[in-house]
Amino acid sequence: MSAQFVREHLKQYANKKQPGVFALVGEWGVGKTHLWNELISSETFAGRSKYSYVSLFGIDSVTAIEKELFINHVPLSKASKPADLNTFMDLIKDTRGLKTTSVEKGYKYLAWVYKGLGWISHVFGRVPIISEYVAGFDIPLYKLLPHNDTLICFDDIERHSSGLDLEDFFGYLEKLKTSKSAQIVLLLNRDQLRCDIYRKYKEKVIDYELLFAPTPEEAFDIAFSKPIPDDAYEVLKAQCCNLKINNIRILMKIARSVEQILPLLSDKLPETYQQVLYPLVLIHLSDACSASIPETIPPIDYIRNYTMYQFLDEDKEKMKSGWRDTLFAAEFESAGDIFSPLVKGVTSGIHDLSILAKDIRKIEEKSCFNKRNTSYNQARADLWSGFRPSDDANKIQRLKDAALEHAEYVKPYQIDDICLLMDHFNEFRAQIRDFVDHYLTRVDIDTKRSLTDYTLKHPIFKESVSKLVFENMPEMPVLYAIGQLASGRVDTRYLQRVSVATEDDYYEFFKNIEISGFHLDDSIQCLLEYRSMKDASNLGLGDIFMDIYDKTSEALKRHAIESELSRFLIKRYLPEVQ
Questions:
Q1: Chain segment 276-290, per-residue pLDDT in tens
Q2: pLDDT for the residue numbered 516
Q3: Pairing mode, if any, of strands 50-55 and 73-75?
Q4: I need a surface site. Which of 1, 36, 180, 576 has the fewest CB within 10 A?
Q5: At a CB cut-off of 8 Å and minimum separation 6, what does 136 contact?
Q6: pTM attached to this predicted model
Q7: Which of 347, 281, 336, 292 is closest to 484 using CA atoms?
Q8: DSSP-derived secondary structure letter, 243
Q9: Which of 409, 397, 402, 399 is nearest to 443 (CA)?
Q10: Alpha carbons 324 and 330: distance in angstroms, whole number
Q11: What is the pLDDT of the chain when averaged over all its residues?
Protein backbone atom coordinates (compact mmCIF):
# COMPACT_ATOMS: atom_id res chain seq x y z
CA MET A 1 0.00 0.00 0.00
CA SER A 2 1.12 3.58 -0.65
CA ALA A 3 2.36 5.86 2.10
CA GLN A 4 -0.73 8.06 1.93
CA PHE A 5 -3.08 5.08 2.18
CA VAL A 6 -1.21 3.79 5.25
CA ARG A 7 -1.19 7.23 6.89
CA GLU A 8 -4.95 7.57 6.55
CA HIS A 9 -5.73 4.15 7.99
CA LEU A 10 -3.31 4.52 10.91
CA LYS A 11 -4.91 7.85 11.70
CA GLN A 12 -8.41 6.36 11.58
CA TYR A 13 -7.35 3.46 13.80
CA ALA A 14 -5.65 5.62 16.44
CA ASN A 15 -8.39 8.22 16.60
CA LYS A 16 -11.02 5.59 17.39
CA LYS A 17 -9.41 5.21 20.83
CA GLN A 18 -10.50 1.60 21.09
CA PRO A 19 -8.39 -1.33 22.36
CA GLY A 20 -6.77 -3.22 19.51
CA VAL A 21 -3.61 -4.26 17.67
CA PHE A 22 -2.64 -2.82 14.27
CA ALA A 23 0.25 -4.59 12.49
CA LEU A 24 2.10 -2.37 10.01
CA VAL A 25 4.16 -4.73 7.86
CA GLY A 26 6.91 -3.94 5.38
CA GLU A 27 10.25 -5.03 3.95
CA TRP A 28 13.44 -4.15 5.77
CA GLY A 29 14.32 -0.48 5.43
CA VAL A 30 11.17 0.77 3.66
CA GLY A 31 10.59 3.34 6.40
CA LYS A 32 7.96 1.91 8.74
CA THR A 33 9.52 3.55 11.80
CA HIS A 34 10.13 6.77 9.87
CA LEU A 35 6.49 6.94 8.79
CA TRP A 36 5.25 6.23 12.32
CA ASN A 37 7.51 8.86 13.86
CA GLU A 38 6.32 11.35 11.27
CA LEU A 39 2.71 10.71 12.27
CA ILE A 40 3.50 10.99 15.98
CA SER A 41 5.51 14.19 15.55
CA SER A 42 2.82 15.87 13.47
CA GLU A 43 0.22 15.53 16.26
CA THR A 44 -2.02 13.61 13.89
CA PHE A 45 -3.79 11.79 16.71
CA ALA A 46 -5.88 14.57 18.19
CA GLY A 47 -7.15 14.20 21.74
CA ARG A 48 -4.83 11.32 22.61
CA SER A 49 -3.14 11.89 25.97
CA LYS A 50 -0.59 9.09 26.53
CA TYR A 51 2.00 7.31 24.41
CA SER A 52 4.78 4.75 24.85
CA TYR A 53 7.30 3.51 22.28
CA VAL A 54 9.22 0.29 22.92
CA SER A 55 11.98 -1.17 20.75
CA LEU A 56 12.41 -4.90 21.36
CA PHE A 57 16.07 -4.74 20.33
CA GLY A 58 17.92 -6.78 22.97
CA ILE A 59 14.80 -7.24 25.13
CA ASP A 60 14.94 -10.64 26.85
CA SER A 61 11.66 -10.94 28.80
CA VAL A 62 8.10 -9.69 29.17
CA THR A 63 9.16 -8.09 32.46
CA ALA A 64 11.74 -6.04 30.56
CA ILE A 65 9.02 -4.97 28.13
CA GLU A 66 6.83 -3.84 31.04
CA LYS A 67 9.69 -1.76 32.40
CA GLU A 68 10.32 -0.17 29.01
CA LEU A 69 6.63 0.64 28.67
CA PHE A 70 6.72 2.35 32.05
CA ILE A 71 9.94 4.29 31.49
CA ASN A 72 8.96 5.45 27.98
CA HIS A 73 5.43 6.46 28.96
CA VAL A 74 5.00 10.14 27.93
CA PRO A 75 2.23 12.58 27.01
CA LEU A 76 1.57 12.34 23.28
CA SER A 77 2.51 15.99 22.93
CA LYS A 78 6.07 15.02 23.92
CA ALA A 79 6.21 11.78 21.93
CA SER A 80 8.86 13.06 19.51
CA LYS A 81 11.32 13.56 22.40
CA PRO A 82 12.97 10.82 24.49
CA ALA A 83 11.65 10.16 27.99
CA ASP A 84 13.58 11.84 30.83
CA LEU A 85 13.24 12.64 34.55
CA ASN A 86 10.61 15.28 33.89
CA THR A 87 8.39 12.93 31.90
CA PHE A 88 8.89 10.34 34.65
CA MET A 89 7.65 12.81 37.28
CA ASP A 90 4.67 13.66 35.10
CA LEU A 91 3.93 9.94 35.00
CA ILE A 92 4.17 9.69 38.80
CA LYS A 93 1.73 12.56 39.20
CA ASP A 94 -0.63 10.85 36.78
CA THR A 95 -0.33 7.51 38.58
CA ARG A 96 -0.72 8.83 42.13
CA GLY A 97 -2.77 11.97 41.59
CA LEU A 98 0.08 13.93 43.18
CA LYS A 99 0.70 17.62 42.52
CA THR A 100 4.35 18.33 43.31
CA THR A 101 6.45 21.31 42.42
CA SER A 102 9.84 19.68 42.22
CA VAL A 103 11.50 16.41 41.27
CA GLU A 104 13.11 16.16 44.74
CA LYS A 105 9.75 16.39 46.57
CA GLY A 106 8.31 13.82 44.21
CA TYR A 107 10.97 11.20 44.99
CA LYS A 108 10.73 11.83 48.76
CA TYR A 109 6.97 11.40 48.59
CA LEU A 110 7.32 8.14 46.65
CA ALA A 111 9.84 6.78 49.13
CA TRP A 112 7.56 7.67 52.05
CA VAL A 113 4.40 6.16 50.50
CA TYR A 114 5.97 2.91 49.39
CA LYS A 115 8.63 2.45 52.06
CA GLY A 116 8.43 -1.09 53.39
CA LEU A 117 6.30 -2.20 50.43
CA GLY A 118 9.27 -2.45 48.07
CA TRP A 119 8.32 -1.91 44.46
CA ILE A 120 10.83 -0.03 42.34
CA SER A 121 14.36 -0.79 43.48
CA HIS A 122 15.03 -3.24 40.67
CA VAL A 123 13.87 -0.64 38.11
CA PHE A 124 15.53 2.46 39.51
CA GLY A 125 17.80 1.17 42.26
CA ARG A 126 20.96 1.78 40.23
CA VAL A 127 20.10 5.35 39.29
CA PRO A 128 22.13 7.48 41.74
CA ILE A 129 19.54 10.21 42.33
CA ILE A 130 16.75 7.74 42.93
CA SER A 131 18.51 4.92 44.74
CA GLU A 132 18.86 7.05 47.90
CA TYR A 133 15.11 6.90 48.36
CA VAL A 134 14.12 3.55 46.91
CA ALA A 135 16.84 1.11 47.99
CA GLY A 136 15.35 -2.12 49.20
CA PHE A 137 11.98 -1.90 47.47
CA ASP A 138 10.94 -4.82 45.28
CA ILE A 139 7.26 -4.36 44.33
CA PRO A 140 7.41 -2.78 40.86
CA LEU A 141 5.46 0.40 40.17
CA TYR A 142 5.23 -0.49 36.48
CA LYS A 143 2.71 -3.19 37.44
CA LEU A 144 0.35 -0.43 38.62
CA LEU A 145 0.52 1.66 35.45
CA PRO A 146 -2.86 1.92 33.66
CA HIS A 147 -2.81 1.70 29.84
CA ASN A 148 -6.30 2.87 29.02
CA ASP A 149 -6.19 5.74 26.51
CA THR A 150 -2.54 4.86 25.86
CA LEU A 151 -1.21 4.45 22.34
CA ILE A 152 1.64 1.90 22.38
CA CYS A 153 4.10 1.19 19.55
CA PHE A 154 6.30 -1.93 19.49
CA ASP A 155 9.21 -1.85 17.03
CA ASP A 156 12.24 -4.03 16.10
CA ILE A 157 10.36 -7.20 17.01
CA GLU A 158 12.62 -9.37 14.86
CA ARG A 159 15.65 -8.08 16.81
CA HIS A 160 14.56 -9.31 20.23
CA SER A 161 16.98 -11.23 22.43
CA SER A 162 16.94 -15.03 22.28
CA GLY A 163 15.77 -14.93 25.90
CA LEU A 164 12.36 -13.60 24.88
CA ASP A 165 9.85 -16.21 23.70
CA LEU A 166 7.66 -14.72 20.97
CA GLU A 167 4.71 -16.73 22.28
CA ASP A 168 5.07 -14.88 25.58
CA PHE A 169 5.27 -11.57 23.71
CA PHE A 170 2.09 -12.15 21.72
CA GLY A 171 0.39 -13.42 24.85
CA TYR A 172 1.37 -10.18 26.58
CA LEU A 173 -0.06 -8.20 23.66
CA GLU A 174 -3.37 -9.96 24.12
CA LYS A 175 -3.30 -9.11 27.83
CA LEU A 176 -2.54 -5.44 27.11
CA LYS A 177 -5.41 -5.27 24.67
CA THR A 178 -8.05 -7.15 26.64
CA SER A 179 -7.14 -6.46 30.29
CA LYS A 180 -5.41 -3.09 30.06
CA SER A 181 -7.52 -1.59 27.23
CA ALA A 182 -4.37 -0.57 25.36
CA GLN A 183 -4.29 0.45 21.72
CA ILE A 184 -1.22 -1.05 20.05
CA VAL A 185 0.69 -0.59 16.80
CA LEU A 186 3.24 -3.24 15.74
CA LEU A 187 5.97 -2.38 13.23
CA LEU A 188 6.84 -5.73 11.67
CA ASN A 189 9.45 -6.86 9.19
CA ARG A 190 7.69 -8.75 6.41
CA ASP A 191 9.77 -11.86 7.13
CA GLN A 192 8.03 -11.99 10.53
CA LEU A 193 4.83 -13.00 8.71
CA ARG A 194 6.44 -16.33 7.86
CA CYS A 195 6.94 -17.06 11.55
CA ASP A 196 4.74 -19.94 12.77
CA ILE A 197 4.13 -18.14 16.08
CA TYR A 198 2.86 -15.04 14.27
CA ARG A 199 0.49 -17.11 12.17
CA LYS A 200 -0.70 -18.88 15.31
CA TYR A 201 -1.54 -15.66 17.17
CA LYS A 202 -2.58 -13.50 14.24
CA GLU A 203 -6.29 -14.36 14.33
CA LYS A 204 -6.47 -14.05 18.10
CA VAL A 205 -4.34 -10.93 18.65
CA ILE A 206 -4.06 -8.90 15.42
CA ASP A 207 -7.10 -6.81 14.51
CA TYR A 208 -5.66 -5.04 11.47
CA GLU A 209 -2.73 -5.85 9.21
CA LEU A 210 -1.53 -3.51 6.48
CA LEU A 211 1.41 -3.90 4.11
CA PHE A 212 3.51 -0.76 3.73
CA ALA A 213 5.17 -0.78 0.30
CA PRO A 214 5.90 2.81 -0.70
CA THR A 215 6.54 3.53 -4.35
CA PRO A 216 10.08 4.60 -5.25
CA GLU A 217 8.72 8.12 -5.79
CA GLU A 218 7.20 8.23 -2.29
CA ALA A 219 10.31 6.79 -0.68
CA PHE A 220 12.50 9.31 -2.48
CA ASP A 221 10.41 12.27 -1.32
CA ILE A 222 10.63 10.99 2.27
CA ALA A 223 14.42 10.62 2.16
CA PHE A 224 15.04 13.87 0.29
CA SER A 225 12.77 16.08 2.33
CA LYS A 226 15.39 18.85 2.49
CA PRO A 227 15.46 21.15 -0.57
CA ILE A 228 18.20 20.47 -3.13
CA PRO A 229 18.87 22.12 -6.52
CA ASP A 230 16.35 21.19 -9.21
CA ASP A 231 19.01 19.66 -11.49
CA ALA A 232 20.17 17.34 -8.71
CA TYR A 233 16.62 16.52 -7.59
CA GLU A 234 15.47 15.53 -11.08
CA VAL A 235 18.56 13.42 -11.81
CA LEU A 236 18.51 11.65 -8.45
CA LYS A 237 14.79 10.94 -8.50
CA ALA A 238 14.96 9.61 -12.05
CA GLN A 239 17.81 7.22 -11.21
CA CYS A 240 16.32 6.03 -7.91
CA CYS A 241 13.05 5.32 -9.70
CA ASN A 242 14.87 3.65 -12.62
CA LEU A 243 16.38 1.24 -10.10
CA LYS A 244 13.12 0.93 -8.11
CA ILE A 245 14.77 1.87 -4.81
CA ASN A 246 12.15 2.17 -2.07
CA ASN A 247 14.44 1.39 0.85
CA ILE A 248 14.58 4.51 3.02
CA ARG A 249 17.88 3.52 4.65
CA ILE A 250 19.64 3.26 1.30
CA LEU A 251 18.08 6.52 0.14
CA MET A 252 19.18 8.28 3.33
CA LYS A 253 22.77 7.13 2.70
CA ILE A 254 22.52 8.45 -0.85
CA ALA A 255 21.24 11.75 0.54
CA ARG A 256 24.25 12.01 2.86
CA SER A 257 26.64 11.42 -0.05
CA VAL A 258 24.82 13.96 -2.19
CA GLU A 259 25.02 16.55 0.57
CA GLN A 260 28.83 16.24 0.49
CA ILE A 261 29.16 16.30 -3.30
CA LEU A 262 26.59 18.96 -4.27
CA PRO A 263 28.88 21.98 -3.72
CA LEU A 264 31.19 20.58 -6.42
CA LEU A 265 28.30 20.46 -8.91
CA SER A 266 27.23 24.06 -8.47
CA ASP A 267 26.68 25.80 -11.87
CA LYS A 268 27.53 22.61 -13.77
CA LEU A 269 25.62 21.34 -16.81
CA PRO A 270 22.70 18.89 -16.32
CA GLU A 271 24.77 16.29 -18.20
CA THR A 272 27.49 16.58 -15.57
CA TYR A 273 24.97 16.11 -12.77
CA GLN A 274 23.83 12.91 -14.46
CA GLN A 275 27.32 11.51 -15.07
CA VAL A 276 28.19 12.00 -11.40
CA LEU A 277 24.93 11.18 -9.61
CA TYR A 278 23.76 8.24 -11.75
CA PRO A 279 26.78 6.06 -10.88
CA LEU A 280 26.66 7.30 -7.27
CA VAL A 281 23.14 5.88 -6.84
CA LEU A 282 24.12 2.61 -8.53
CA ILE A 283 27.18 2.21 -6.28
CA HIS A 284 25.08 2.77 -3.15
CA LEU A 285 22.56 0.15 -4.31
CA SER A 286 25.32 -2.36 -5.06
CA ASP A 287 27.10 -1.71 -1.76
CA ALA A 288 23.89 -2.25 0.21
CA CYS A 289 22.18 -5.07 -1.69
CA SER A 290 24.55 -7.07 -3.90
CA ALA A 291 25.01 -9.65 -1.13
CA SER A 292 21.34 -9.89 -0.11
CA ILE A 293 19.86 -9.70 -3.64
CA PRO A 294 22.57 -11.38 -5.75
CA GLU A 295 20.16 -12.34 -8.54
CA THR A 296 19.63 -8.77 -9.76
CA ILE A 297 22.09 -6.44 -8.00
CA PRO A 298 25.66 -6.77 -9.34
CA PRO A 299 28.68 -6.41 -7.03
CA ILE A 300 30.94 -3.37 -7.31
CA ASP A 301 33.71 -5.39 -8.94
CA TYR A 302 31.43 -6.56 -11.75
CA ILE A 303 30.20 -3.01 -12.39
CA ARG A 304 33.76 -1.69 -12.46
CA ASN A 305 34.68 -4.07 -15.30
CA TYR A 306 31.40 -3.85 -17.18
CA THR A 307 30.92 -2.40 -20.65
CA MET A 308 27.92 -2.21 -22.94
CA TYR A 309 29.59 -4.88 -25.10
CA GLN A 310 28.55 -7.50 -22.58
CA PHE A 311 25.03 -7.25 -23.99
CA LEU A 312 26.45 -9.09 -26.99
CA ASP A 313 28.30 -11.74 -25.00
CA GLU A 314 27.30 -15.23 -26.03
CA ASP A 315 28.21 -16.68 -22.64
CA LYS A 316 24.82 -16.50 -20.90
CA GLU A 317 26.27 -17.23 -17.45
CA LYS A 318 28.94 -14.56 -17.82
CA MET A 319 26.33 -12.13 -19.07
CA LYS A 320 24.30 -12.44 -15.84
CA SER A 321 21.00 -11.30 -17.32
CA GLY A 322 19.68 -9.97 -13.99
CA TRP A 323 22.76 -7.82 -13.48
CA ARG A 324 22.66 -6.71 -17.09
CA ASP A 325 19.04 -5.60 -16.76
CA THR A 326 19.88 -3.57 -13.65
CA LEU A 327 22.79 -1.83 -15.37
CA PHE A 328 20.64 -1.18 -18.41
CA ALA A 329 17.99 0.42 -16.19
CA ALA A 330 20.74 2.54 -14.61
CA GLU A 331 21.85 3.68 -18.10
CA PHE A 332 25.34 2.52 -17.16
CA GLU A 333 27.82 2.20 -20.01
CA SER A 334 31.18 1.82 -18.32
CA ALA A 335 33.14 2.95 -15.28
CA GLY A 336 34.96 6.22 -15.84
CA ASP A 337 37.65 7.99 -13.83
CA ILE A 338 35.16 9.06 -11.17
CA PHE A 339 33.94 5.55 -10.42
CA SER A 340 36.71 4.48 -8.02
CA PRO A 341 36.66 7.73 -5.96
CA LEU A 342 32.89 7.40 -5.65
CA VAL A 343 33.22 3.78 -4.47
CA LYS A 344 35.72 4.81 -1.80
CA GLY A 345 33.39 7.57 -0.61
CA VAL A 346 30.36 5.29 -0.49
CA THR A 347 32.11 2.50 1.42
CA SER A 348 33.71 4.87 3.93
CA GLY A 349 30.87 7.39 4.18
CA ILE A 350 33.32 10.25 3.56
CA HIS A 351 34.04 11.50 0.02
CA ASP A 352 37.45 12.91 -0.88
CA LEU A 353 36.29 16.19 -2.41
CA SER A 354 39.75 17.15 -3.67
CA ILE A 355 39.85 14.09 -5.94
CA LEU A 356 36.20 14.37 -6.94
CA ALA A 357 36.62 18.05 -7.84
CA LYS A 358 39.27 17.12 -10.39
CA ASP A 359 37.15 14.34 -11.91
CA ILE A 360 34.02 16.50 -12.00
CA ARG A 361 35.96 19.27 -13.75
CA LYS A 362 36.98 16.79 -16.48
CA ILE A 363 33.39 15.56 -16.81
CA GLU A 364 32.18 19.15 -17.15
CA GLU A 365 34.73 19.83 -19.88
CA LYS A 366 33.54 16.77 -21.78
CA SER A 367 29.90 17.79 -21.28
CA CYS A 368 30.69 21.21 -22.75
CA PHE A 369 32.56 19.53 -25.60
CA ASN A 370 29.59 17.29 -26.40
CA LYS A 371 27.31 20.32 -26.63
CA ARG A 372 29.56 22.07 -29.15
CA ASN A 373 29.30 21.44 -32.86
CA THR A 374 32.78 19.90 -33.07
CA SER A 375 34.20 17.93 -35.95
CA TYR A 376 33.94 14.75 -33.85
CA ASN A 377 30.28 15.25 -33.03
CA GLN A 378 29.60 16.08 -36.67
CA ALA A 379 31.48 12.97 -37.82
CA ARG A 380 29.40 10.80 -35.48
CA ALA A 381 26.21 12.40 -36.80
CA ASP A 382 27.34 11.81 -40.40
CA LEU A 383 27.40 8.06 -39.79
CA TRP A 384 23.60 8.25 -39.69
CA SER A 385 23.17 10.74 -42.52
CA GLY A 386 21.98 8.08 -44.96
CA PHE A 387 22.95 4.69 -46.38
CA ARG A 388 25.31 5.57 -49.26
CA PRO A 389 27.97 2.83 -49.65
CA SER A 390 30.10 5.04 -51.87
CA ASP A 391 30.58 7.43 -48.93
CA ASP A 392 31.44 4.80 -46.27
CA ALA A 393 35.20 5.25 -46.46
CA ASN A 394 34.95 9.04 -46.21
CA LYS A 395 32.68 8.80 -43.14
CA ILE A 396 35.07 6.47 -41.32
CA GLN A 397 38.11 8.58 -42.24
CA ARG A 398 36.43 11.75 -40.90
CA LEU A 399 35.42 9.95 -37.70
CA LYS A 400 38.95 8.60 -37.18
CA ASP A 401 40.60 11.96 -37.78
CA ALA A 402 38.12 13.84 -35.59
CA ALA A 403 38.56 11.34 -32.73
CA LEU A 404 42.30 12.00 -32.73
CA GLU A 405 41.76 15.76 -32.97
CA HIS A 406 39.61 15.70 -29.82
CA ALA A 407 41.22 12.67 -28.17
CA GLU A 408 41.18 14.14 -24.65
CA TYR A 409 37.37 14.37 -24.75
CA VAL A 410 36.57 11.08 -26.50
CA LYS A 411 35.71 8.25 -24.12
CA PRO A 412 37.93 5.15 -24.24
CA TYR A 413 35.03 2.86 -25.09
CA GLN A 414 34.30 5.12 -28.10
CA ILE A 415 37.89 4.69 -29.29
CA ASP A 416 37.36 0.95 -28.85
CA ASP A 417 34.19 1.26 -30.95
CA ILE A 418 36.10 2.99 -33.74
CA CYS A 419 38.73 0.23 -33.70
CA LEU A 420 36.02 -2.41 -34.04
CA LEU A 421 34.42 -0.44 -36.88
CA MET A 422 37.74 -0.07 -38.72
CA ASP A 423 38.26 -3.83 -38.43
CA HIS A 424 35.32 -4.38 -40.82
CA PHE A 425 37.05 -2.55 -43.70
CA ASN A 426 40.19 -3.84 -45.41
CA GLU A 427 41.48 -0.36 -46.16
CA PHE A 428 41.33 0.62 -42.47
CA ARG A 429 42.25 -2.63 -40.72
CA ALA A 430 45.97 -2.08 -41.16
CA GLN A 431 45.67 1.43 -39.72
CA ILE A 432 44.27 0.38 -36.32
CA ARG A 433 47.59 0.09 -34.50
CA ASP A 434 48.74 3.46 -35.79
CA PHE A 435 45.37 4.97 -34.77
CA VAL A 436 45.69 3.59 -31.23
CA ASP A 437 49.31 4.76 -30.90
CA HIS A 438 48.35 8.29 -31.96
CA TYR A 439 45.45 8.29 -29.49
CA LEU A 440 47.71 7.25 -26.60
CA THR A 441 50.19 10.04 -27.38
CA ARG A 442 47.39 12.66 -27.22
CA VAL A 443 45.83 11.81 -23.85
CA ASP A 444 47.21 12.69 -20.42
CA ILE A 445 48.67 10.30 -17.85
CA ASP A 446 45.44 10.16 -15.81
CA THR A 447 43.46 9.03 -18.85
CA LYS A 448 46.06 6.38 -19.62
CA ARG A 449 45.89 5.07 -16.08
CA SER A 450 42.09 4.96 -16.23
CA LEU A 451 42.23 2.75 -19.34
CA THR A 452 43.13 -0.20 -17.13
CA ASP A 453 39.68 0.09 -15.52
CA TYR A 454 37.90 -0.47 -18.85
CA THR A 455 36.98 -3.81 -20.37
CA LEU A 456 38.19 -3.23 -23.91
CA LYS A 457 37.15 -5.46 -26.80
CA HIS A 458 39.57 -4.82 -29.64
CA PRO A 459 42.72 -6.94 -29.20
CA ILE A 460 45.13 -4.28 -30.52
CA PHE A 461 43.74 -1.62 -28.18
CA LYS A 462 43.84 -4.08 -25.26
CA GLU A 463 47.43 -5.08 -26.07
CA SER A 464 48.59 -1.47 -26.33
CA VAL A 465 47.01 -0.56 -23.00
CA SER A 466 48.53 -3.60 -21.29
CA LYS A 467 52.01 -2.46 -22.37
CA LEU A 468 51.68 1.01 -20.89
CA VAL A 469 54.32 1.77 -18.26
CA PHE A 470 53.58 4.48 -15.72
CA GLU A 471 56.63 6.18 -14.29
CA ASN A 472 56.63 7.45 -10.72
CA MET A 473 53.56 5.39 -9.93
CA PRO A 474 54.19 3.57 -6.63
CA GLU A 475 53.04 -0.02 -6.44
CA MET A 476 50.24 -0.76 -3.99
CA PRO A 477 51.67 -2.20 -0.73
CA VAL A 478 50.73 -5.84 -0.22
CA LEU A 479 49.72 -5.22 3.41
CA TYR A 480 47.39 -2.43 2.28
CA ALA A 481 45.68 -4.79 -0.19
CA ILE A 482 45.30 -7.45 2.52
CA GLY A 483 43.77 -4.84 4.81
CA GLN A 484 41.24 -3.76 2.19
CA LEU A 485 40.18 -7.37 1.60
CA ALA A 486 40.02 -7.88 5.37
CA SER A 487 37.51 -5.02 5.42
CA GLY A 488 35.26 -6.82 2.93
CA ARG A 489 36.19 -4.69 -0.07
CA VAL A 490 36.40 -7.31 -2.81
CA ASP A 491 38.10 -5.51 -5.68
CA THR A 492 40.19 -6.93 -8.52
CA ARG A 493 43.00 -4.45 -7.78
CA TYR A 494 43.38 -5.82 -4.25
CA LEU A 495 42.91 -9.43 -5.33
CA GLN A 496 45.56 -9.13 -8.02
CA ARG A 497 47.98 -7.57 -5.55
CA VAL A 498 47.51 -10.25 -2.87
CA SER A 499 47.98 -12.97 -5.47
CA VAL A 500 51.73 -12.44 -4.89
CA ALA A 501 51.42 -12.07 -1.11
CA THR A 502 53.28 -14.59 1.02
CA GLU A 503 52.34 -16.29 4.26
CA ASP A 504 54.82 -13.94 5.95
CA ASP A 505 52.84 -10.94 4.67
CA TYR A 506 49.69 -12.23 6.36
CA TYR A 507 51.68 -12.98 9.51
CA GLU A 508 52.97 -9.38 9.62
CA PHE A 509 49.49 -8.01 8.93
CA PHE A 510 48.04 -9.75 12.00
CA LYS A 511 51.07 -8.91 14.13
CA ASN A 512 50.85 -5.13 13.61
CA ILE A 513 47.19 -4.76 12.81
CA GLU A 514 46.53 -1.94 15.30
CA ILE A 515 48.92 0.30 13.35
CA SER A 516 46.74 0.03 10.24
CA GLY A 517 43.56 0.79 12.15
CA PHE A 518 41.82 -2.53 11.43
CA HIS A 519 40.06 -4.70 14.02
CA LEU A 520 41.76 -8.05 14.55
CA ASP A 521 38.65 -10.19 15.11
CA ASP A 522 36.72 -8.69 12.17
CA SER A 523 39.73 -9.03 9.87
CA ILE A 524 40.31 -12.69 10.77
CA GLN A 525 36.67 -13.56 10.21
CA CYS A 526 36.50 -11.71 6.90
CA LEU A 527 39.68 -13.22 5.45
CA LEU A 528 38.66 -16.76 6.45
CA GLU A 529 35.29 -16.28 4.76
CA TYR A 530 36.97 -16.08 1.34
CA ARG A 531 37.02 -19.86 1.41
CA SER A 532 33.22 -19.95 1.22
CA MET A 533 33.35 -17.49 -1.69
CA LYS A 534 35.52 -19.80 -3.77
CA ASP A 535 32.68 -21.73 -5.40
CA ALA A 536 30.41 -18.68 -5.62
CA SER A 537 32.93 -16.67 -7.63
CA ASN A 538 31.91 -16.15 -11.25
CA LEU A 539 34.85 -13.94 -12.20
CA GLY A 540 37.53 -16.65 -12.24
CA LEU A 541 38.85 -15.65 -8.83
CA GLY A 542 38.26 -18.91 -6.98
CA ASP A 543 41.97 -19.80 -6.78
CA ILE A 544 42.84 -16.40 -5.31
CA PHE A 545 40.03 -16.71 -2.74
CA MET A 546 41.34 -20.11 -1.66
CA ASP A 547 44.91 -18.79 -1.52
CA ILE A 548 43.77 -16.00 0.82
CA TYR A 549 42.15 -18.55 3.12
CA ASP A 550 45.15 -20.91 3.11
CA LYS A 551 47.72 -18.22 3.88
CA THR A 552 45.49 -16.62 6.50
CA SER A 553 45.09 -19.99 8.23
CA GLU A 554 48.80 -20.77 8.20
CA ALA A 555 49.72 -17.29 9.46
CA LEU A 556 47.23 -17.62 12.32
CA LYS A 557 48.58 -21.05 13.26
CA ARG A 558 52.05 -19.53 13.53
CA HIS A 559 50.72 -16.87 15.89
CA ALA A 560 48.83 -19.52 17.90
CA ILE A 561 51.99 -21.39 18.88
CA GLU A 562 53.70 -18.21 20.10
CA SER A 563 51.36 -17.37 22.99
CA GLU A 564 48.60 -18.94 25.06
CA LEU A 565 46.37 -15.89 24.60
CA SER A 566 46.85 -15.95 20.84
CA ARG A 567 46.04 -19.67 20.76
CA PHE A 568 42.90 -19.11 22.84
CA LEU A 569 41.66 -16.31 20.55
CA ILE A 570 42.55 -18.03 17.28
CA LYS A 571 40.94 -21.34 18.30
CA ARG A 572 37.60 -19.55 18.09
CA TYR A 573 38.08 -19.29 14.31
CA LEU A 574 40.26 -22.34 13.71
CA PRO A 575 39.05 -25.13 16.03
CA GLU A 576 41.78 -27.44 14.70
CA VAL A 577 44.42 -25.31 16.45
CA GLN A 578 45.76 -27.28 19.43
A1: 999 999 999 999 998
A2: 58
A3: antiparallel
A4: 576
A5: 118, 121
A6: 0.60
A7: 347
A8: T
A9: 409
A10: 10
A11: 81
